[in-house]
């Protein structure tokens, strides 16, 4: 079993626990990163996309004649052109059908309708403006509840005869009868509708690619912004018929992924088709509005939750029904078995005797939804619902929200703990994390201050969120994407001079893998981080992996890296035994050396051993020092934490100010504390954003009303509070280095802490729930309604 | 978006009606109209440059005189397109004799659906802009008839 790790290595080596400066930062700080739009190939053409103004319409005709007259325009591609090659549609990662270019019907505003290829970006845009499309508008369905009504237009008549409605799938977990019985018998019962609005990842770099077809060699190189390049290669091979060995997918530096760069977008496919057609490299780069309006979205869950409890506040039952708006096609990037992701982690940090959760996926005239935006596959939605419900229960029963949590937590001695919806939590100490957060923020004093302020008519609230995350997808018996098991990999090559090249199956889009994966190897083998180069994102060289999303890199590829390093360490032991003329069983490993037990002077450093692997290996042993590991995790990992937020609300404007925010995280053993802090800062800010600012809204005609950063509000440093971080360490018992993953904890945990704080400030006025984002407009309307402000 | 209004024009009803169903006359009052092409007596095509806030676009608009009950009632349907934007509009005009001789009371209604980029990006300004443009159109009709 992994135990809480003490630093084993010197700062010069920089193994686990050292805040090693990021190896990738010098190039970013100097503006020398190589992003997709920096790539310009000789003879390259540019591709731009004609998009639908209508959210639902029949395409009567497309007239490209004027566009083809625009100087520089080389080709216009329509759905009819693609249909001839069977490339007009593609399967989504969820196995649904997504049009590359529609042949008959557009299904959402800004959907791709045609592509123009030209000798410059400007000519391509001029060509787009000159393509005339004749549409006949159709009835638009924006609201998923209305989509389920019997008289709603059937949005996807292409589906089977028994599926001529807008219901995509039903998924459930837990025991319905037990939950119903538990609710019926409960002394106190609460029921609430909670909406988690549609949001967008809004990464700084939009999506794009350069497709480069070499007709002579029969080689397709696809430079692209992808979080999962190997999966893209396999899908491309299956869809296009090109042999997989002749497809190379290559990522460059990526300016943020957050789930938005997992799916395959039509633009990528169009660039590939355009390159195959023209024989030239073709570049496609989205502009900001295209990115916001047309790419996959996250959240959009309409949750109805019911919870039972005793009058003393002991939780007894949970039942949750959810409508999931997936837009016009189910493009969720979830594991196959889990169309609603890991939403059934909704029992959270609490010891529920029973629970039942069901989700229904629904089609609407919106872009395809269901991307895991920094949420570990729908965990954000689950955590928001359960943390809101626990808080409502506490307020209803007039029990302190901290006490009700303490009274209902799964206790550390119950670990490993089986939840009523089927997960086995590997480890966790929830009371310790909440206690630390309360101590850090001075919880009791804040409650006194709040009482004094309330007496004076001031609005102050305190909100808690004690979340449990579920990351590291995942074990092959349950987890695959389009059939590909969700293992991950690492290949390590030690060079004769004692320097290391390691290639990993996961991608990095800002996480710092070039540093942290080197630290894992430094920890295991004693090579200094400076001597280790990490490569990724080139499918010709990197071992096969499923990519970076859902906080899976450290739990899965990080484990593979440790295991590959251990294979090298074991071979090094035999090499050392040969060099030291000792029995391998008599050797001990310390600080990057194998030495003879009891004679520390008789030792060989890993660098000496590496040299010997190429110059003096024993007869009968393979020369060289390399290893590869494909890691199939035995379980997921379960990071957790407790966040406490203090808000003040301006009575005149409804403006919510986050005065303090304490975040205690437990992600198991930490590889690089500085990078973990950075992940938490970023995650908290990305949790703060949808709590107070972000929401992707549509008018009744399906027009996206948040297509620019003027309407889709992102927090800047000015709006962002000063985060106060704390940590506990509960290592994962099954992970080779006891790590758990932290990329999404804060995004998952922060929104309910903020929402709970705001409702806490307003509860005495009769406010039970407010859906995020908690905009000044929304709060002001409530204050007016309650007579607080004029 | 629904808009409606009423205006009194100092011209007899028959003349007002004749003006309204003549694309070359009524067309010049449309916002930003640059050219008009008559297809037949019920169909015509206009090109117009329209701006909402910082976005402006050149529209190609197909119009149809959908109903014409002389001299009291006319309905014009329009579908316009610009890159990334579409407009679907129905204008209804009902004419009644005014209280004064040789005057006409025109009640008008307009249903306007804007789709795409202009609706998306210009949402905050679109209702005000549309309202202004429609009012200008009917003011123009009145002014031309009273010339």
Summary?
The complex is a heterodimer of chains A (790) and B (147). By secondary structure, chain A is of the alpha+beta class.
What does this entry look like structurally?
The complex is a heterodimer of chains A (790) and B (147). Chain A is of the alpha+beta class. Chain A has three domains: 25-33 and 488-631, Aldehyde oxidase/xanthine dehydrogenase, molybdopterin binding domain (Aldehyde Oxidoreductase, domain 4); 36-138 and 206-254 and 261-294, Aldehyde Oxidoreductase, domain 3, CATH 3.90.1170; 392-473 and 636-785, Aldehyde oxidase/xanthine dehydrogenase, molybdopterin binding domain (Aldehyde Oxidoreductase, domain 4, 2-Layer Sandwich), CATH 3.30.365. Chain A has a seven-stranded mixed β-sheet with strand order 3-7-1-14-11-12-13, with helices on both faces. In chain A, β30 (640-649) and β31 (656-666) form a beta hairpin. In chain A, α10 packs parallel to α18 (745-762), α14 packs parallel to α15 (553-580) and α17 (673-692) crosses α18. Chain A is globular and about 85 Å long. The model of chain A has no long low-confidence stretch (mean pLDDT 96). Chain B is α+β, with helices and mostly antiparallel strands. Chain B has a single domain, classed as Alpha-D-Glucose-1,6-Bisphosphate, Chain A, domain 4 (2-Layer Sandwich), CATH 3.30.530. Helix content of chain B is 28%, strand content 51%. Chain B contains four helices and seven strands, in the order βααββββββαα. Chain B has helices at residues 13-20, 23-26, 117-121, 123-146, and strands spanning 2-9, 33-38, 43-52, 55-69, 73-82, 85-97, 104-116. Chain B has a seven-stranded antiparallel β-sheet with strand order 1-7-6-5-4-3-2. Chain B is globular and about 45 Å long. The model of chain B has no long low-confidence stretch (mean pLDDT 91). The interface between A and B is medium-sized, with 25 and 17 residues.
